[in-house]
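Researcher: I'm preparing a figure for a lab meeting and need a structural model of a single chain. I don't have an experimental structure, so a prediction will have to do for now. The sequence is pasted below. Please return the structure as C-alpha cells so I can convert it later.
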Amino acid sequence: MASTTVSKTVSLGSNPSIPAPMQHYPLLLYPNPILHKKALAGEGFTQEVHNLISHMQDVMKTHNGVGLAAPQVGISLRLILVQNGETVEACMNPQVLSSSKEREVDTEGCLSIPGLWIPISRPARISVSYLAKDGKEVTRDLKGFLARVFQHEIDHINGKLIIDHLGFWERFKLRKRLKNLGEKSL
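Model: Understood. Here is the structure written out cell by cell.
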C-alpha cells in the first residue's frame, strides 16, 4: 500500500484552530468530517506535540486501543501512536515506502467506530519511514500485527477509515449501524 505525502506543514503552537495544550482533546467518532480529511505534515516534536502525545496515550489507554492518530482527537497532524509491546511509539509523518504482494486478512476495529469489527485485507509486510520522538528519521520493516496497526493508523492520517475498505454492498449492509453511531455522536 502506497502512502502519499502532504506538502503542507503545521506547527501545533501557531495554528489557531488547535486547542491550547492543557485543553481536552475528545475522541472523535464517525461520521465526524475531520476523520475523512488528510492531515497536515508536522515540523517536529515541540512541547505542544509532547503534550498532545501524552493526551493521546491517555485516550488509547482509556479506550483499550493499540494505536491512535492525531485526527482522531481532532488535530490535523500526521502523528500516530502505536503500541509495540510495553511501549508506545510516537511517529510523525509516517509513510509506507513499500509493501509485499502477499496479503493477510484479519478483523480490525477502530476507536472512532466503536463496536464495529471488519475483516480487512492488508499487505503482510511493509517498510515504513517516520520521524521518531528523538528527531531521527527511522526506516523499519514490519510484519504481522505491528504492520497492520501501522497501516491502520496511516490510513487515519490519510483520511481513510476501516469502512472505506469495504465494497459498496458490504457498506450498504452496515448503513443502519453507521447511521445509529452517527446519531449517538451528535
